[in-house]
Specification:
0% strand
């Protein structure tokens, strides 16, 4: 009888090809200086690499690409200091 290996699930790609294209595009726009943050691009220029990736994935999600769900991070925005 064969011994069982670690309880890992075998799965395919986590992100679809369309998602990687969107992230790639966002990274290029960041390098060019045309990637903006905020609703409708009303925020400032994006300089952070991580933020560019997040924007690319967000755009991919909106277009219906295969992207894993967001983790339940911050919900209430910034905390007030009193």
């Amino acid at each position: 009888m064969a011994a069982k290996k670690g309880g890992r699930k075998k799965s395919g790609r986590k992100y679809g090809k369309a998602a990687s294209k969107r992230v790639e595009s966002a990274m290029r726009r960041r390098k060019k200086g045309t990637l903006k943050s905020g609703q409708g691009g009303k925020g400032g220029k994006v300089k952070s690499r991580k933020q560019a990736i997040a924007i690319g994935l967000s755009e991919a999600r909106k277009k219906g690409a295969k992207v894993p769900r967001k983790k339940g991070g911050r919900k209430g925005g910034r905390k007030k200091s009193s």
